[in-house]
Amino acid sequence: MAAPFIVFEGLDGAGTTTQARRLVEALAQAGRAAHYTREPSDGPVGTLIRQALGGRLTHPDHSRLAPETMALLFAADRMDHLAAEVDPVRAAGVAVVCDRYVLSSLAYQGQELDDAFVRAINARARAPDLTIFLKTSPETALARRAGRHLQADLYEALQTQRRVAAAYDAAIQERSSSHRVQVLDGERPVDGIAEDCLRLALSCA
Ligand code: TYD
Fold it and tell me: Model pTM?
């Protein structure tokens, strides 16, 4: 059987990258080989997406790519990421810990596009063995981001984060059992959250 596929989700600034990396280290210390990865991925489509989010990939008149185009790129990146990285790593017996996955598309693209379209283009992305949702208020997430030197991207404003938070709540309700979603309070100290993540991961590893 393939090694587990574990996903972290949350608002920008919720701590998904910190906790995903901590979990990979903690699993290794517990004797379970684990691999950190992320979406948008570091593959060809993910690289395009990061360029578009950062405003470095635009139309000749400098306008941004349309929301539908971005949603399709996120979905294409996901299929490419599964085939090129996630599946081979898992087949080799190494757990994969992925920073963002389908719920990010439902939450971010879903708040500006028809839900049915976003669901349809992600229908082939298989469900993870565990999804850890780090729940933070939009205010906390934004305040944390303001403390970092992040390039302005499409999703920074608080109003947008509030809409994304609401879309995440709806997506979690819908996928709670299929994506095995566990909601953790992302406003607690980092070490306590990391302990809970390890416990959840070991129960599915
Ligand atoms: P992220 O890696 O969290 O940003 P950073 O590296 O700057 O910390 O993700 C980049 C952005 O992409 C983030 O705002 C969420 C967004 N996103 C979507 O809109 N849809 C998706 O399907 C995914 C995976 C990410």
Answer: 0.94
